[in-house]
Amino acid sequence: MKNVDMKYLLSCAVEIVTVNGRPFSCLNDSGMRKLLQPYLDALPQSEKQAINQKTVVSHIREKADKFTEELKKKFAKRLIPLKIDCACRKGRSFLGVTTQLMSMETINGMNYKAIEEI
Q1: Are residues 54 and 67 in the same domain?
Q2: HEC profile for the chain?
Q3: Which among 32, 75, 89 has a CA at the least distance from the CA of 55?
Q4: Of the candidates 1, 4, 7, which has an alpha carbon nearest to the alpha carbon of residue 51?
Q5: Are 68 and 92 found together in one domain?
Q6: Which of 72, 10, 14 is nearest to 40 (CA)?
Q7: pLDDT of 23-67, one tens digit each?
Q8: With contact defined as beta carbons under 8 Å apart, do 86 and 97 qualify?
Q9: Cβ atoms within 10 Å, residue 16
Q10: 6, 55: one domain
Q11: Around 15, how many Cα atoms within 13 Å sit in the side-chain half-sphere?
Q12: Can you tell me the distance from the alpha carbon of 103 to that of 81, in angstroms, rounded to the nearest whole number?
């Protein structure tokens, strides 16, 4: 069995709402609480924190802000190509933005993609 720590539990909660597309509110459901509680109880007191809708939203915002700042530094004062797409699926509308950055020092390009529900 994998060694479970707070970082791993939080990454699993983030995956549920980002990759798997579940609503943030599912993190407050009684069944989810029952699944998480034994793992939280096994953690040392110093590592414990709540995993719920509020803390996961906050964690995602912090990661997004950090990523945004990194992108701002990489793209500062550069001309970059943008590709903007719109899509609808199951009554939900999405806006996608893709950009690329080529560095003169390397041959490899870096692609950045962002998808936002609108």
Answers
A1: yes
A2: CCCCCHHHHHHHHHHHHHCCCCCHHHHHCHHHHHHHHHHHHHCCCCCCCCCCHHHHHHHHHHHHHHHHHHHHHHHCCCCCCEEEEEEEECCEEEEEEEEEEECCCCCCEEEEEEEEEC
A3: 32
A4: 7
A5: no
A6: 10
A7: 999 999 999 999 999 988 888 888 888 899 999 999 988 888 888
A8: no
A9: 17
A10: yes
A11: 6
A12: 13
User: Burial of 5 by CB count in 10 Å (0-12 exposed, 13-18 middle, 19+ buried)?
Assistant: middle
Are 101 and 109 contacting, i.e. CB atoms less than 8 angstroms apart?
A: yes
Whole-model pTM?
Answer: 0.65
Structure confidence by residue, pLDDT tens digits, 95-115: 777 777 666 555 555 555 666
Same domain, 68 and 96: no
Place of tokens 């690329």: 100
